[in-house]
């Protein structure tokens, strides 16, 4: 398989998925609206005090990001499974892990990247001090690809189970705990004036490792689901 044909296959699968999602814009807006609703309502539950909100703001935003990634993740491969596209992908001459990477990339472009852009607004609503804004955006930028990759693995594993959303959440939530700890710790370090870059670099390393391994796990899960 030549490099040109691999690149053509990758861009083709990404363009196809983007076009499908653009026809259902609610799939893009719903996760973002969910995050904004959670961030807007949270101060009503704990009180508007800036000290309390600022201290827990990073954790709240990351938990909202995690839940929004799971929102609708059941449909990540579901329609392709029902119409036979997944089975066709397993028969393509291009490597299935490469095509799986394209789907992970599209998921991040539509869920992770908008969240990075929305981060300043979320930080403002939760009264996060300015000292933590940059670190929050950095953790979201390098950490949300992990959300997309792990979500894709879980979605591929449960795609043949019908209504597997609850099972998907149970499978994935424990895997997200280290990500939440390191991301929140990085923002906390920035707020107290210590170096946050070790946690950010660790997240970046975990993201690279996940993106290298996840396409193979997704491909294996797809083969199990369609056979």
UniProtKB/TrEMBL annotation:
Its main location: membrane. The chain crosses the membrane at residues 28-46, 52-72, 104-126, 132-159, 166-187, 199-222. It is found in: Cell inner membrane. It is a multi-pass membrane protein. Keywords: Cell inner membrane, Cell membrane, Cytochrome c-type biogenesis, Membrane, Transmembrane, Transmembrane helix, Transport. GO terms for biological process: cytochrome c biosynthetic process; cytochrome complex assembly. It comes from the Bacteria. One of its GO terms (cellular component) is plasma membrane. The keyword Zinc does not apply. GO terms for molecular function: heme transmembrane transporter activity. The keyword Oxidoreductase does not apply. NCBIfam families: ccmB. Required for the export of heme to the periplasm for the biogenesis of c-type cytochromes. Belongs to the CcmB/CycW/HelB family. This is Heme exporter protein B.
